[in-house]
């Protein structure tokens, strides 16, 4: 009898089963559970690397995992940027890039191994490095004096840069255009040798990031002529802005951004974006960035969509500058 009762109960029709919510991907729920690599597509010691290491310290605290910095330089940032684009989109490999890697490179190469507008998820604008036009000692103390020299020596100005397609190359192209110099561009393997030869008089002038020019300008080994931004730099209060120097169209600054590979889950992107923005709000980091003349964007201008819009606007800008200057794609 007992056996029949049990079998009968088992045969009774079942009522509606309770709804069980579908589990979200474990990756998004448990992230991060191990260290997060912050990739830098340039050699250690440069402006982007310095920013990355300062940011990594704060990210580690807010995300609860260590954030080691990995440097992979080469080809103007292309090698490291391509590697980031091909990384697994799980939030454990992210990277920094800047105006060159994510906006200007398409203007100089027929076929990039990545598409800056479609292969990445923008996370946060992390800082802007102003650029400065500077001349070798004894050549000119102002832009007006340099223009006079150019008028007397047409086509003879030499502009050093960190390599074709580099941000200093872009700055040089723009500076050449605004002063109508028809300069000879002299590429080097990096900003340091380019700056050194300008200091030594091998080349006449250079346009480079403020962080590399400021120490030499303060020491008198190079003459800063103009800052390519609307306000003067507190580190060089006597150096005029481009507008004050009579070249208002000389406007260029190296913006830097944080990125994740395309396809990274949305919850992870949101966490990363907020972690970067929170790091930039840190007072100690702000002071450190100021020492390197890095300008932190306001919160409203540093999010994912503002960075995406910035890239979309900058790609055609540098494409036009390169074509107007007669630079052929490699």
TrEMBL record:
Keywords, in A-Z order: Signal
Superkingdom of origin: Bacteria
KW Aminoacyl-tRNA synthetase (keyword) present: no
Transmembrane regions listed in the UniProt entry: none
InterPro entries the UniProt entry points to: BUG, Bug_dom1
Pfam families: TctC
Signal sequence segment: 1-28
KW Magnesium (keyword) present: no
Family under the similarity heading: Belongs to the UPF0065 (bug) family.
Protein name in the entry: Tripartite tricarboxylate transporter substrate-binding protein
Source organism (scientific name): Teichococcus globiformis
